[in-house]
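Homework-ish question, so no full write-ups if that breaks the rules, but can someone show me the predicted structure for this set?
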Amino acid sequence: MSLDFTWLAVPHYQRLLLNGVSTTLQLSLFGLVLALFVGVAGASLIHWRVRYLSPVLTTFVELFRNTPSLVQLFFLYFMLSEMGIYFLDAETGRRVPVFSGFTCAVLMLALSNGAIAIEIIRSGLASIPKETVEAARSLGYSRWQLLIYVELPLSFRMTIPLMANNIVSLIKTTSQSALIAVPDLLYAANVIMSDTFRNAEVMILVWALYLGIVSICIQLIHVLHRRARIPGYGQ
Amino acid sequence: MIICDIEAKPLVRMNAVLKKFGQLEVLRDISLDVREGEVICIIGPSGSGKSTLLRCINGLIEINQGEITVGDIRVDTLKTERDFIALRHQVAMVFQQFNLFPHRNVIDNITMAPIKVLKQKPEQVRERAMQLLQKVRLVDKAHAFPSQLSGGQQQRVAIVRALAMQPRVILFDEVTSALDPEMVSEVLEVIKDLAKEGMTCILVTHEMRFAREVADRVFFTDRGIIVEHGPPQALFDHPKDERLKEFLMKVL
Amino acid sequence: MSDGQEGRDWRDFLVGLCGVTMILFAILTIIYRAGTLDALNTLRDLSPMLLTGSPQWGPLRGGFSTNIQISLWAMAISLCLGFLLGTGLISRYGSIRLPSVFVMNTLRNSPWLVILYAMLYAVPYEIGIGRTTFEISPEVKAIIGLSLPTLANIAEVFRAGIQSIRAGQWEAARSLGYSSGQITRLIILPQALPLMLPNLMTTYAALFIGTSLVVVTGANDLLAVARVVIGSGAEKYATAIYIYILFVYFIFSFPIAIWTRRLERQVRAGK
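A: Not a homework solution, just the prediction itself:
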């Protein structure tokens, strides 16, 4: 079986791949930031057992944890385009949908992986020993200060491995945006394959690129984990 | 209790044993003899290599240099599974955390090894097991599961499990350290009876009173070497080495 | 198991079920307002097609039934191969362990969609053995594609389960003279398998949710049927159909999730 990678030398395809990688990274970054935001906010609200909001949030979490992200993506895409929110681009005078494919994908990631993040952070908060919380309260920390200075830092450090899985899952899920024509790495792969018919080679390269992105990310998280480690805690 | 000839060949012999974990020398030049029927207590501060020493005798840990002999078996040169099984027919071990198999009941825990490892007849093994259980006063718990027993009861079952293999020497690794104080004596009583019946016992222990009462010889280890050894009265009442004196002051 | 705990599980289940149903229904109403009733009727009419692939609840030719079938086949294959890979992960020999770790990590770090696309292009449409040719259907490609990451997950569950049995058990068994094979069979596996069960169920749940991706191999699953249905006249109700699909996946996955949490609690309590 001979593999022909000559198509890689063509600048057009190189550009496609680079754009694809860039889009995938952007999706991952935006998705991650929003997902963490959702995670912290949601976990805090549930942890504080805020009336009315907590059960609603918990239900949302269950909904997004137990349904496929691709279906969530399609649902968001169709719903938001159906709602027909446009804005008029002053320069061209054309109607530009506010919710492009990219936006929908980021939104899906924020909700789907955000729901998982809520669960992870919440369980981290719940596993902090009562004594620690009591001590902080008796020192005069308000609920906010307790959360920001004691509970969240501890919860983050304890749940890094689980959160790492979540982040890896997020990066892998970005590939689904190709199905709503977001020009990410997988989409680029499809374009190149339909052009060159070198299916095996393109898939191998793109697979390797995804693995590379994920591996680098895992290494970064390892470094973070080691630097954030509390000596002797939890022994 | 020694009941045999003082000139007889030692049952367990360690000669110039060296054990390193990476760069750390846990055992440095350990040499000792144990004669049949002797009760040996090994005492010393934590990290002095006592548990490692025991595990070298029954082949759980491989040594870097030196010789270890149990009966006619050279432990340090054993290779095949069959050889190791032959060794473990002679040497049994009881652990600090009991390590009973939680998914089988007491009688199974005791009888499985003789039946499956030594291939002895099930009925004979069962009978022997029940007799042993009677000696430790746990016959009524024969069909209970380990999680239903107290720590002291579990440890007594662990001792019976070791006895069921009919060993020539039993190793005890701090077997009372994980027990609540009320249960320590019931386990020590069992070991005392074993000693009276002539079983060769090597114990790593912190129970100094027990060592003084029951041991024939006591070894004091510190940082991988045997610093001093001798009859308990000599060691406890007239310690010679500084480190031993320091240690005894802290624990007695 | 105290009765209070079991009651709480049932309560969580019912609350979750009602809550999600209400939320989905609320979203439906917000979007379709006056047309909600029509939307619901359309969904009811489309159900047979979406769930079984036949217009009249007929033979199981596609739709959701395909997703279920694919997940079951993939799980069966993954269990066998996953356990095999798992034994490689805990092998004493580096020459077996290292490649196993590499394979497992590669499969776990690959996007499922990329693997499925690779199956689409790498697996031939038909293979010939002797004089007969076997046609490999898109569903089979999907099963193979989904089995790959799942078997890696199962291998990891296997490894974690075996290695979570305290070292003391190994020591005691070795001291009594058991051989390695006996220790694995009689002491370790009986204790490890119950521990693995919750994680195996989680793996199946993820696999099941992952079957939503098989549409790219050409399999005639729920999303494929939905696409056809939407394309042939029901664009108006596209959002409603996707809400419906979310709901269908939810009522299948949520019970499994609750049951798994219950099992996890029992396992932890039993330790």
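Now go work out the reasoning yourself. Hint: Residues 148 and 256 of chain C are 22 Å apart (CA to CA).
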